[in-house]
């Protein structure tokens, strides 16, 4: 994104993230653009093919920045550094968010700090995992 864009910033500063984005804004940064909550809702169609839960409920989304120009930067992690489906998840996330009105561009950045852990999952995500026999 350009330096002139206005963003809704979810980072904790200096590129560091505390973990899963749990308090998304519900107000759009500009008229005609989605809010962070709407972006997260769109991302719920994206699933890790190895785990039957969406990336939001897994706690993989660390940040969503939306510019007034309609550019979205998603900061996320994966359950493991060597995840073989990283490119598929990136593509699915980009396509899901591009479907929202007002969005011009989507970039997904993967970060590995803090590392993902089961405690980052939402309660709904944990419930879904238990339904599939996982002990979380």
TrEMBL record:
<dbReference type="InterPro" id="IPR052339">
    <property type="entry name" value="Fe-S_Maturation_MIP18"/>
</dbReference>
<dbReference type="InterPro" id="IPR002744">
    <property type="entry name" value="MIP18-like"/>
</dbReference>
<feature type="domain" description="MIP18 family-like">
    <location>
        <begin position="37"/>
        <end position="109"/>
    </location>
</feature>
<dbReference type="InterPro" id="IPR034904">
    <property type="entry name" value="FSCA_dom_sf"/>
</dbReference>
<protein>
    <recommendedName>
        <fullName>MIP18 family-like domain-containing protein</fullName>
    </recommendedName>
</protein>
<dbReference type="Pfam" id="PF01883">
    <property type="entry name" value="FeS_assembly_P"/>
</dbReference>
């Amino acid at each position: 994104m350009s330096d002139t864009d206005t963003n809704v910033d979810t980072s904790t500063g200096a590129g560091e993230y505390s973990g899963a984005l749990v308090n998304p804004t519900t107000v759009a940064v500009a008229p005609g653009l989605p809010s962070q909550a709407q972006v997260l809702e769109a991302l719920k169609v994206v699933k890790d093919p190895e785990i039957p839960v969406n990336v939001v409920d897994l706690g993989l989304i660390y940040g969503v920045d939306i510019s007034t120009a309609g550019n979205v930067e998603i900061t996320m992690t994966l359950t493991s550094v060597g995840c073989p489906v990283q490119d598929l998840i990136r593509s699915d996330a980009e396509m899901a968010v591009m479907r929202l009105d007002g969005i011009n561009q989507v970039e997904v950045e993967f970060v590995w700090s803090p590392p993902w852990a089961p405690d980052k999952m939402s309660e709904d995500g944990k419930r879904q995992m238990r339904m599939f026999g996982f002990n979380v």
